Known about the structure:
11 helices
Amino acid sequence: MQPDRQPRSQSSTRRIDKLLAYLFVTLGAMASPSVSAKCPGPVSVQVLGSGGPIANNTRASSGYLLWVNSKARLLVDAGGGTFARFGTAEARIEDLEAIVLTHLHADHAVELPAYLKSAWFGERTQALPLIGPSGNLEFPGLTEFVQQLIGPGQGAFRYLSGYMAGTSGYFKTTLYESDADSREPETILTTPNLTLTTIGVTHGSVPALGLLVEVDGKRIAFSGDQNGDNPQFGKMIAEADLLVMDHAVAQDAEKSEAELHARPEEIGRLAAEAKVKHLLLSHIMPRSEAQLSESQAIIKDAYRGKVTVAEDLLCVALPQKNR
Ligand SMILES: [Zn+2]
């Protein structure tokens, strides 16, 4: 007779459950992206969102900050979830010299009104440049997009229309629409810290921009979403210190997917030909995440520089040049 077997067994099970729960919580915390209050270094890029359009437990949609001397000077893309990460990163809208929307897919642009609304509670008074692509029959250009969001009269968030003219206590948003059909670089804005050059890139039929930022002698490139077929983009970003590249598809991507995003082979070729010094793979989706190591091997066949896989809030400090 073993009257105590059942209770002892339950007790052991509870202890094991507790141990597993402890391990799960502890390991889960260790696996979380490291939260950085601010990026160190004279020039750094911080990932606000390393994912794509699919809701994800660790990756927000597309967004990046460029930090210069501990101030966030540039926001590139405003996809879903980036606004919260912007807060976690302790960035300030007062410090931004521009916002660039590389294209107007929701996973790159949907939270723009949230940033603007947040700014109303801040101290910014100077105009804020917004840069984005021209439109086509399927997509509005930046100007139409902003009008549809916050324009007086018909704008969805017309209560923020003061940002259009800089009235009623709002600062003005200055719009710079870059020709997405152009395959040649255009220096679209020079701010106190940054020179911003855009170029039209191919993202299916979506008007889309690639971006080069020059700051303090450093060159930082953002692919936006593109399939890599514009050779002028590679020339524009030649010898960039960092290329933030969308890695949304694996090598076995369907043709329709590869018209939107560069396959790993294309990423490797582009990074190698442009001789970029550091490649940051981002815009990672479940289909590319599932084959990350195979894809990195393909990329490294052509490109021998440093490769990093992005995670949210990752901070990449650019090395200081010997002067
Ligand atoms: Zn995207």
